[in-house]
């Protein structure tokens, strides 16, 4: 039934049923694509050309159509930036996603299966009876969290949800037990090799092997760290590879955990470089060792931890302890990595190796009681990680540097850090939670310390960041008011009055690498012909502040010798009744005709008081006009004189 | 979002067909403008220019798209010649031809090149640019001040006119009352004057 496809990385999993007139449509519950096993209701990244960041969605149906086309129906998650216009007044976490709900455009649609770019880990932390609360480890490993919904029909953020979204029971959509239940069965079969070797062995043996493996792994971590730092050794010990596989398999067997299998597959088959947890794609040959390292870490951390926790809770300590300990350390390891990401100033490294070894030996020899393990899991990150963490942190730093390099071509400093091989980071944006964090932090720091580029830039269309074209944006006035309250609103001056709002956005993008929504102030008869103004809403308060500060300290020169001026001057939005001078009414009961005459528009005739008064107004208007003309004339003169002093003309 | 040349040309046409009105009372609504101008031309669309800057007492401004550029000239001439009242007296509205910058949703001028750069502190232009920035700020302060002064002027004229109006009103009221209670007739007879009969 399963056709041999051109694509060797693809295989169907469990069949679910048939559909269509002639039962030509086959529904599935799982499949393997590019070495990664996907199950129904998994969250995935979907890559789209021209989009800087992949979409995130949940697979809600998988099928093969009559003409052998592979299709998935995907229920979308929204990134906050995609629905920015409707988030005014909501606190949004950095890695928060909103699940589409309701009915309308943007809820879900059908995509070719090949559009899937990788697995994504979205933890649903909604407090709801129907939602099993995610384990802490899961939360830590989550790329994104989600607890709110976006109604695509009503364009509203929802905190609660009905029983069904897009016809799918929400219990499947929440942290789903479904795939866990299913996972063990369907996946194990795929890993026949490992299973056939290992299934028969006893629990103890498995534990032993895993322990041994861990020890080895730990050592390897040290060594690997070395290698990476020093020589970037490309050779990968096959032994470790295998053991890694065995280790994971034994776990898989014990727990029948869905995710494991694809890791073990990866490691055994030495497939193309894995997305770590479906993610960071780094140059294949070069960084294989690193990736494996990471994979080891991830495997242990991502899955067995839950397992351990569970076992500990049940009070079944027994022989698993050692393994528990080392895995605890691994967790720490990763945590430490995260720690290091935050302060990326780690330079000392390899000398720690001996300590690592002794540590690992000690821990795996000791039989620590249950409590202590827990303690370690809980708080023991501090010390040993320093030791382990260093090489790894160094490694992460490399990645970080690389990313920086990728982000910012002219960051010369980091260039030597980057191997000469071509990186293909861009083929798949990094998605691991920690990488995400790292990315986030690196971009923010980049922005904060963003060294100004002094070259002349030509303003072109900025990459379109707000992909919210599906929805009609909120009224500008409303948005401006909200942004103003949140300190995200900046007033720009000295723009060329003929610029359009989108051009202002482009300029901001080029000058500050910030995306924003801008609105040129429309000209009136009184506006200055010299200085156009615009209000700009930034995404974050910090961005707005940094832009204003940079404009204050530096000089951002635009065409025709215009330095941009920015300030937090607030717009005039008061809703109080505006005062208008010059309309009088006699506050006496009037006859009907006069009332009507007042409310209708008319030309005044030169035979009454109204006409005389109107002429007085005309006179005043003329005088005002003249005042403005003279003011602007003088201002223009002043500007012209000063601009003549500018040497460079851009 | 490069706008095509055709799009831009269409926009230019629209600008030519549009008349700009200001000195409008805050009570003026789209329907008021429509009914006011429909005696001269066909009103295609009306949009108010929001005032986010400066003083809140600035009168409303609006863009009114008419059916042809010729009508714009007619409306303009008419409103210039006779003070034109809208929802109130005696402050008249003003009409002018519109310009592109008044429009909110204008397309980007095709083939326009914008350039920008950050100036280094060592750059001789840095100081000049700094001065320019200051000048810009000064100018914008001047503009605000100007708005305030002119608004005061308007207020002055307005109160003065209110006063005049009150006096006039009193005068006419008095005349009316002596005419109605026949005091005028009594007096006329007394001084032997001819009085216009009611």
Automatic annotation (TrEMBL), chain A:
SMART domains: BAH (SM00439). CDD domains: RRM_SF (cd00590). Residues 346-367 have a biased composition (Basic and acidic residues). It holds the Pfam family BAH. Residues 36-161 form the BAH domain. The lineage of its organism: Eukaryota, Viridiplantae, Streptophyta, Embryophyta, Tracheophyta. This is BAH domain-containing protein. Residues 337-367 are annotated as: Disordered. It comes from Vicia faba (Broad bean). Keywords: RNA-binding. It comes from the Eukaryota. GO terms for molecular function: chromatin binding; RNA binding. Residues 488-571 form the RRM domain. Gene3D superfamilies: 2.30.30.490, 3.30.70.330. PANTHER family: PROTEIN ANTI-SILENCING 1 (PTHR47073:SF2). PROSITE patterns: BAH, RRM.
TrEMBL record, chain B:
One of its GO terms (cellular component) is protein-containing complex. One of its GO terms (biological process) is RNA processing. GO terms for molecular function: nucleic acid binding. InterPro entries: Epigenetic_reg_gene_expr, Nucleotide-bd_a/b_plait_sf, RBD_domain_sf. It comes from the Eukaryota. Gene3D superfamilies: 3.30.70.330. This is RRM domain-containing protein. It comes from Vicia faba (Broad bean).
């Amino acid at each position: 039934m399963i056709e041999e496809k051109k694509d060797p990385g693809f295989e169907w999993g469990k069949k679910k049923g048939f559909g269509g007139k002639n039962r030509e449509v086959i529904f599935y519950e799982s499949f393997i694509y590019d070495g990664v096993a996907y199950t129904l209701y998994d969250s995935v990244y979907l890559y789209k050309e021209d989009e800087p960041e992949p979409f995130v969605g949940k697979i809600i149906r998988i099928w093969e159509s009559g003409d052998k086309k592979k299709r998935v129906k995907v229920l979308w998650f929204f990134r906050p930036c995609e629905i920015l216009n409707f988030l005014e007044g909501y606190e949004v976490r950095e890695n928060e996603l909103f699940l589409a709900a309701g009915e309308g455009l943007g809820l879900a649609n059908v995509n070719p299966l090949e559009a899937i770019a990788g697995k994504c880990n979205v933890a649903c932390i909604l407090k709801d009876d129907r939602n099993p609360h995610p384990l802490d480890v899961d939360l830590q490993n989550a790329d994104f969290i989600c607890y709110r919904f976006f109604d695509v029909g009503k364009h509203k953020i929802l905190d609660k949800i009905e029983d069904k979204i897009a016809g799918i029971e929400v219990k499947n959509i929440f942290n789903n037990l479904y795939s866990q239940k299913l996972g063990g069965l369907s996946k194990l079969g795929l890993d026949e090799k490992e299973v056939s070797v290992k299934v028969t062995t006893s629990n103890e043996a498995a534990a032993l092997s895993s322990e041994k493996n861990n020890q080895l792994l730990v050592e390897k971590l040290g060594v690997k760290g070395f290698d990476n730092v020093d020589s970037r050794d490309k050779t990968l010990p096959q032994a470790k590879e295998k053991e890694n596989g065995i280790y994971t398999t034994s776990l898989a067997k014990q727990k029948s955990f869905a995710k494991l299998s694809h890791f073990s597959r990866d490691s055994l088959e030495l497939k193309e470089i894995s997305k770590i947890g479906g993610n960071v794609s780094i140059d294949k040959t070069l960084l294989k060792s690193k990736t494996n390292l990471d994979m080891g870490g991830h495997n242990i951390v991502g899955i067995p931890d839950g397992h351990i926790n569970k076992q500990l809770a049940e009070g079944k300590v027994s022989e698993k302890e050692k393994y528990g300990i080392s895995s605890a350390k691994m967790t720490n390891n990763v945590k430490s990595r995260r720690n290091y990401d935050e302060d990326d100033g780690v330079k000392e490294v390899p000398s720690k190796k001996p300590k690592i070894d002794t540590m690992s030996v000690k821990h795996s020899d000791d039989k620590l009681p249950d409590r202590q393990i827990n303690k370690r899991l809980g708080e023991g990150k501090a010390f040993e990680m320093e030791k382990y963490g260093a090489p790894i942190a160094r490694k992460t730093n490399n990645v970080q540097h690389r990313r920086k390099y990728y982000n910012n071509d002219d960051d010369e400093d980091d260039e030597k850090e980057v191997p000469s091989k071509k990186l293909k980071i861009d083929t798949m944006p990094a998605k691991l939670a920690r990488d995400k964090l790292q990315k986030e932090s690196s971009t923010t720091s980049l922005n904060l310390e963003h060294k100004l580029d002094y070259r002349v830039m030509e303003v072109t269309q900025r990459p379109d960041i707000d992909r919210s074209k599906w929805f009609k944006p909120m009224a500008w006035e409303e948005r401006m008011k909200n942004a103003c309250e949140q300190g995200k609103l900046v007033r720009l001056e000295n723009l060329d009055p003929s610029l359009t709002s989108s051009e202002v956005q482009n300029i901001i993008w080029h000058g500050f690498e910030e995306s924003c929504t801008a609105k040129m102030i429309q000209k009136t008869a009184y506006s200055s012909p010299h200085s156009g103004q615009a209000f700009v809403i930034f995404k974050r308060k910090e961005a707005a502040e940094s832009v204003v500060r940079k404009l204050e300290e530096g000089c951002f020169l635009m065409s025709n010798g215009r330095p941009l001026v920015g300030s937090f001057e607030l717009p005039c939005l008061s809703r109080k009744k505006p005062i208008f001078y010059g309309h009088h009414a006699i506050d006496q009961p009037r006859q009907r005709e006069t009332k009507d005459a007042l409310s209708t528009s008319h030309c005044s005739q030169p035979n009454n008081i109204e006409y005389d008064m109107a002429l007085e107004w005309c006179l005043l208007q003329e005088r005002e006009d003249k005042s403005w003309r003279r003011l602007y004339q003088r201002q223009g003169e002043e500007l012209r004189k000063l601009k003549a002093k500018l040497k460079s003309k851009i | 979002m490069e706008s095509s040349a055709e799009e831009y040309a269409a926009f230019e046409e629209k600008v030519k067909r549009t008349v700009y009105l200001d000195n409008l009372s805050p009570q003026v609504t789209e329907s008021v403008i429509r009914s006011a101008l429909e005696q001269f031309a066909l009103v295609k669309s009306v949009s108010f220019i929001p005032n986010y800057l400066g003083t809140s007492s600035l009168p409303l401004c609006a863009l009114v798209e008419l059916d042809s550029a010729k009508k714009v000239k007619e409306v303009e001439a008419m409103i210039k010649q006779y003070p034109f009242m809208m929802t109130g007296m005696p402050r008249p509205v003003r009409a002018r031809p519109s310009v592109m910058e008044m429009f909110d949703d204008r397309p980007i001028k095709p083939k326009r090149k914008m350039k920008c750069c950050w100036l280094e502190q060592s750059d001789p232009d840095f100081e000049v640019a700094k001065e320019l920035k200051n000048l810009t700020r000064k100018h914008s302060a001047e503009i605000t001040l100007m708005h305030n002064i002119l608004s005061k002027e308007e207020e002055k004229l307005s109160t003065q006119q209110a006063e005049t109006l009150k006096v006039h009103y009193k005068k006419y009221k008095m005349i009316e009352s002596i005419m109605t209670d026949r005091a005028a007739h009594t007096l006329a007879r007394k001084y032997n004057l001819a009085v216009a009969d009611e």
